[in-house]
User: Which sequence fits this backbone?
DNA sequence: GCGACAG
DNA sequence: ATCTTGTCGC
């Protein structure tokens, strides 16, 4: 399925859309629910591009939260919907991600995104944006500090330091050490999830590598999907 | 104006 | 994100 008919085309439209969605974000756990409940399905999503051929491929992978086994996966290929503009990444990545998620048979308990959620200039990074659009719980795990500040966490796995917005001083996320002595990842709340839960979930999923198992699987899958599409002509699931 | 800038 | 070889190490 193509790009949503009403998808923003200009930066001005995208900025207005972020302002509209921003107040809808729920930056905390759902009341009366155990966020660490066993037997849940966590989804990982990621996107790969080929600007040359105007192609984008997204992947959605479902993992069992306890065993980290992949239980289902889906991909979606389409045209690039928006250029890369820092702060407006959601408009470039989400159309394909929504298609990949829609192709899944089961609904994930939480979706782990590549990038930020509340840690965003206007508090609506792609993770939060995706949460509002789907109603699903989401959180973001980014690989670089973006425009935020942080101090180096202690070397032990599990240690973390606050990620702050230099403009306001508020904590927008956390720099989390998922592997001893390895560069930290940057976790932020997406939607219907609190920061403690987002960090806990990230650590549970990144037991063996720096990045969550969800993103690692989604990353390799969307690259394969892109290679296929580039070789064939278009779609291929 | 200049530099920085998730993926 | 993507362009790209070998190399050091568990």
Assistant:
């Amino acid at each position: 399925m193509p790009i949503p008919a009403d998808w923003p085309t200009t930066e001005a439209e995208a900025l207005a859309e972020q302002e509209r969605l921003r107040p809808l974000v729920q930056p905390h756990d759902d009341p009366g629910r155990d966020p660490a409940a066993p037997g849940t399905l966590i989804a990982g999503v990621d996107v790969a591009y080929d600007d040359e051929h105007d192609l984008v491929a997204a992947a959605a992978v479902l993992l069992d939260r306890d065993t980290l086994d992949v239980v289902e996966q889906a991909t979606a290929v389409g045209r690039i919907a928006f250029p890369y503009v820092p702060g407006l990444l959601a408009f470039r990545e989400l159309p394909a991600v929504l298609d990949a998620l829609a192709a899944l048979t089961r609904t994930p308990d939480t979706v782990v995104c590549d990038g930020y959620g509340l840690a965003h200039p206007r508090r609506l990074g792609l993770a939060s944006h995706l949460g509002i659009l789907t109603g699903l719980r989401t959180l973001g795990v980014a690989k670089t500090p973006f425009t935020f500040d942080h101090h180096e966490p202690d070397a032990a796995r599990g240690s973390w330091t606050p990620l702050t917005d230099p403009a306001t001083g508020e904590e927008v996320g956390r720099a989390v050490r998922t592997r001893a002595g390895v560069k930290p990842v940057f976790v932020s709340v997406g939607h219907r999830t609190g920061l403690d839960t987002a960090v806990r979930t990230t650590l549970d999923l990144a037991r063996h590598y720096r990045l969550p198992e969800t993103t690692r699987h989604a990353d390799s899958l969307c690259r394969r999907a892109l290679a296929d599409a580039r070789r064939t002509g278009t779609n291929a699931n």
